[in-house]
């Protein structure tokens, strides 16, 4: 059981996602808990102000420190388990499957979702971790909190049910997933690779591994450096890389 608490100025956006489909079923089965809190609970003025203008001037508004400090302290104290506190920012550590795997061993995670132009820098002293979804800017951290929740929950034992597994998936061994097909075997002239219809489990496993390697080399060669490959597979990758480089040279020369 893992418990997520999300602090946000728009706490109403989480519920429909975490209560639907696979996440919804996992939550009903008690595999995780998810609560959201309105940051404005921790304001003390009539207008329930959470933002203010930046010192030094500049565009837009920043989230002020007081409500965030009080919210994180109060939410943390609601449960004896010490939470892992996560903030979101384009300046954070890029989110990866490895990080999702590490977070799946936590008992409690508190998310603090930013809005506006970001936050007063001092709030990050509360953070155990600052996470970025990628090199782009969102209007708020809520999608980031849902993304992390989703990626972590599907790694928890029992979350996917018996019929699915997180074992063979993209990034699980540092490679992208192999191509998959379902019926019909021929659709508009597009044929499913013959080996997948052969019933030969050894041949299918070899094809899938080779396909995952080839696909990773073509679409995300950066992943191969950290991948778990046999010496034979490394040699194959190197020869494929060399031959694709000489192909490039040929097309450039012609
Ligand atoms: N001015 C900031 C961006 C603020 S965007 C900057 O230039 O770095 C407002 C909020 O959206 C952030 O506080 C963060 O919580 C969230 N956010 C925006 N982009 C994100 C990203 N790539 N990953 C994770 N969270 C992001």
Describe this protein's structure.
This protein is of the alpha/beta class. The chain has two domains: 2-153, SPOUT methyltransferase, trefoil knot domain (Alpha/beta knot, 3-Layer(aba) Sandwich); 186-253, Trp Operon Repressor, Chain A (Orthogonal Bundle). 34% of the residues lie in helices and 17% in strands. The protein is built from seven helices and nine strands; from the N terminus they run βααβββαβαββαββαα. It has helices at residues 15-18, 21-28, 65-77, 97-103, 142-153, 201-219, 231-253; strands at residues 2-8, 32-38, 51-52, 62-63, 84-94, 108-112, 129-132, 186-187, 190-191. The termini are far apart.
Listed once per kind, the bound small molecules are: S-adenosyl-L-homocysteine
**Contiguous runs where pLDDT drops below 50 for at least 5 residues:** none
Strand order of the largest sheet: 2-1-6-5-7
Please count the beta strands (DSSP E, at least 2 residues each).
Answer: 9
CATH class of the largest domain: Alpha Beta
How many helices in DSSP terms? Answer: 7
- Share of helix, binned: 25-40%
Radius of gyration: 23 Å
How many domains? The number is 2
User: Biggest sheet: strands, sense, closure?
Assistant: 5 strands, parallel
Give the overall average pLDDT: 94
CATH topology of the largest domain: Alpha/beta knot
Shape: elongated
CATH superfamily of the largest domain: SPOUT methyltransferase, trefoil knot domain
Query: Could you say which structural class the secondary elements and strand pairing correspond to?
Result: alpha/beta
Q: In the CATH classification, which architecture of the largest domain applies? A: 3-Layer(aba) Sandwich
Q: What oligomeric assembly is this protein in?
A: single chain
Along the chain, the helix and strand elements come as EHHEEEHEHEEHEEHH
Strand content: 15-25%
């Amino acid at each position: 059981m893992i418990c997520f608490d999300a602090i946000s100025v728009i706490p109403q956006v989480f519920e429909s996602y975490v209560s639907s489909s696979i996440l919804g079923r996992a939550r009903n089965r008690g595999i995780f808990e998810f609560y959201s809190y309105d940051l404005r609970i921790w304001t003390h003025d009539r207008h329930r102000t959470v933002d203010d203008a930046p010192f030094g001037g500049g565009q837009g508004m920043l989230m002020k420190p007081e409500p965030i400090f009080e919210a994180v302290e109060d939410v943390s104290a609601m449960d004896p388990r010490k939470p892992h506190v996560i903030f979101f920012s384009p300046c954070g550590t890029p989110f990866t499957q490895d990080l999702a795997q590490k977070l799946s061993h936590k008992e409690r995670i508190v998310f603090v979702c930013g809005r506006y132009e970001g936050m007063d820098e001092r709030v990050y002293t509360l953070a155990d971790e600052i996470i970025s979804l990628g090199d782009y800017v969102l209007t708020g951290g809520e999608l980031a909190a849902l993304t992390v929740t989703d990626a972590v929950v599907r790694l928890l034992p029992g979350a996917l049910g018996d019929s699915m597994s997180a074992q063979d998936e993209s990034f699980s061994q540092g490679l992208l997933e192999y191509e998959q097909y379902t019926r019909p075997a021929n659709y508009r002239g597009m044929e499913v690779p013959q080996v997948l219809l052969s019933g030969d489990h050894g041949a299918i496993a070899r094809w899938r591994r080779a396909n995952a390697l080839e696909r990773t080399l073509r679409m995300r060669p950066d992943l191969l450096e950290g991948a778990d490959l046999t010496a034979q597979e490394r040699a194959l990758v190197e020869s494929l890389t060399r031959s694709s480089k000489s192909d490039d040279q040929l097309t450039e020369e012609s």
